[in-house]
Amino acid sequence: MASSVETLEFQAETRQLLRLVIHSIYSNKDIFLRELISNASDALDKLRLESLADSTVQADISDLHIALEVDRDARTLTVRDNGIGMSRDDLVDLIGTIAKSGTAGLLEKIKESQDAAAAQSLIGQFGVGFYSAFMVADKVTLRTRRAGTDAGTRWESDGEGTYELQAVDGLPVGTSVTLHLKPVDGEDGLADYLAGWKIRQIVKQYSDFIRWPIRMAAEQTEGATGTENDGDAAVETLNSMKALWARPRSEVTEAEYTEFYQQISHDWLAPAETIHMRAEGTFEYEALLFVPAQAPFDLFSRETKRGVQLYVKRVFIMDDCEALMPNYLRFVKGVVDAHDLSLNISREILQHDRQIQAVRRRLVKKVLGAIKTTQANDAERYGKLWDQFGRVLKEGLVEDTDNTQALLELVSLPSTHDAERPTTLRAYVERMKDGQDAIYYLTGETRATVENSPHMEAFTAKGYEVLLLSDPIDEIWADRIPAFDGHRLQSIAKGQVDLDEPADGDQEADSERSKREQDFVALLPWLTTALAEQVKQVRLSSRLTTSAACIVGDADDISPTLEKMFRATGQEMPPVRRTLELNPSHPLITGLRTAHATDPADPALPEIAELVYGGALLAEGGDLPDPARFTRLLTTHLTRTL
Ligand SMILES: Nc1ncnc2c1ncn2[C@@H]1O[C@H](COP(=O)(O)OP(=O)(O)OP(=O)(O)O)[C@@H](O)[C@H]1O
Q1: pLDDT at residue number 306
Q2: Where are the beta strands (DSSP E) in 369-417?
Q3: Which family does this protein fall into (predicted)?
Q4: What is the DSSP string of 36-80?
Q5: C-beta 86 within 6 A of ligand 1
Q6: Is 175 in the pocket of ligand 1 (CB under 6 A)?
Q7: Is there an atom of ligand 1 within 6 Å of 127 CB?
């Protein structure tokens, strides 16, 4: 005789939550299967643990698995496990009630929030788990028997306010959840959840690394591979179960890491770096990260995705989890599996989660540490890595003030020391000349313009090493980083540079300088006025040996390349007037001085001044404001000399 059916009411909060779930706060309905598989997997874990810990629990743990069963005629999909199961009381407590503290308040907030995305993100904080079944089913039947007991229970509900309970005999240990599926409705995001391909796709996407086999009867017509014969019907295992990150490092081979990396990154090369770690304590997680050997083609595109995949206990949650990786490490691929997050956690919540921020800090340190180790041990491999990712890593010098020091140790920069090989800042410092108090650098648009710029002349003549920076990002970080290892970073195109600084009391040098100043006492103010629109000052230079003139900025002026970059992005910029420096021993400059002394009103003089300024601008790789005028003046004055 069948036992009696009891009808119970859902707790008030559960009713509210169900209503929210049914009225589709989730646009992605596919996740119901992820939730049910995750519950089944937890139940299998629990049974195994319990039977290992307590030998009186007589449970068969020889073939723990999850089975997905489709009944086309009845339009049902069943998720079955042979895990721990639930007693009648468990069902009332766990499924009929939400025991989580703060639920009522949270539901209140969700109700108040008009915006679906905000509601989804709020609800993601504690997850909907089992109730998500009601997104795709208008009735759910759950049959379960707790391991170690004989009593089975049937639970059934349409999610509307009440549920039925009935004692049932003869159930196997474990739980089956049968979904009486709603009709397919593409517009409402309801796919055909009876279709084998759809089920396979969802399992592959979200549950591939679940540690227990997820089985389904193979469809003869689809010629499934990887099947095994289970009695009459062929059975297919849908998930790979290969969550490498969950295994101890010592048990994973290099080839397995490579295969896994290739699977998640769609790269065909082996990774350059593999970082595998496990954190225990209050917030447990495992991370398996890779630095690719080759930069993706879209590394600098605005649409580049960044971040690693996030899993919660082997269940896939999201791709490109930007909360876990800063922008400048966007090339890092891999997986982070955090144990204590809700399956429905949203991107917004993750961004502000303190524990996630702590995980991110730790991951960044690990990645930089791995790169540092390669730098120390294998110069060639490091060189290749820097070639691929150096430009992005330099963005970290602007973005990530916590790791400035670590990043400064990593940077590898072209310098006048070696035309072929770049240098680290540390190696530069070790080579610094006695008495040199700054690390010199020059920025520009290309290496050639930087190398040939007039600013370099005195430094080359005196044998001072100069870093040649021609990446756009160099303009920004070099300006912001004040020093490395106690040595100032100094642009040689900014401020006063005097490599011949006379020692205190060097009277000979002092008097030579003041004589020179005296010689130009009339020309300099006149030139400053003649070129007032272009420059703020004209002065004598000590950085030139062969060129007639160069243009320099003040310490806090932005560089011309940066000015150009800002304009290119459409930003309004007031023109930056810099200082024109003249080489006092150049014949053009001494000639100009003589001509000015002879006839200060000569109309040719302002034109020569303009040519001197234009020439200096061209020499540093700059753009003339009016190239046609410059060429006309040049032609006129050249013609006169012939
Ligand atoms: N297949 C199952 N076998 C045994 N117990 C289950 C099963 N499914 C659900 N339960 C029990 O019901 C409880 C509630 O499930 P539900 O999916 O609503 O939330 P959860 O899994 O605890 O939380 P979340 O989904 O946010 O991780 C579970 O904690 C578990 O104890």
Answers
A1: 79
A2: 412-415
A3: Belongs to the heat shock protein 90 family.
A4: HHHHHHHHHHHHHHHHHH-TTS----TT--EEEEEETTTTEEEEE
A5: yes
A6: yes
A7: yes
Q: Is the CB of 129 under 6 A from ligand 1?
A: yes
* Residues of the chain below pLDDT 50: 220-221, 223-225
Whether 498 maps to a domain, the answer reads no
What pLDDT, on the 0 to 100 scale, is given for residue 53? 75
pLDDT score for 316: 84
Q: Which atom of ligand 1 is nearest to the CA of 39?
A: 8
Distance in Å, CA 131 to ligand 1 centroid: 10
Q: Does the C-beta of 43 come closer than 6 Å to ligand 1?
A: yes
Residue 535, SS3? strand
Q: Quick check: is 384 in a domain?
A: no
Q: How far is the CA of 9 from the centre of ligand 1 (A)?
A: 19
Domain identity same for 248 and 233: no
CATH code assigned at 208:
3.30.565.10
Nearest to 81 by CA among 166, 155, 32, 146: 146
In testing the pocket of ligand 1, which one of 10, 87, 94, 131 has its CB within 8 Å of the most ligand atoms? 94
Distance of alpha carbon 72 from alpha carbon 539, whole angstroms: 89
Please tell me the total count of domains within the chain.
3
CA-based torsion, 100, 104, 108, 109: positive or negative:
negative
Residues 224 and 262 in one domain: no
The amino acid present at 229, given as its one-letter code, is N
Per-residue pLDDT tens over the stretch 139-172: 999 999 999 999 999 999 999 889 999 999 999 9
Which residues form the domain of 627?
Answer: 514-640
Flag whether 190 is in a domain.
yes
- The protein residue whose alpha carbon is closest to atom 14 in ligand 1 is 94
Tell me, what's the pLDDT at 539? Answer: 92
ipTM: 0.97
Residue nearest to atom 29 of ligand 1 (CA): 94
CA–CA distance, 199 with 219 (Å, rounded to integer): 12
In this structure, the residue with its CA closest to atom 20 of ligand 1 is 129
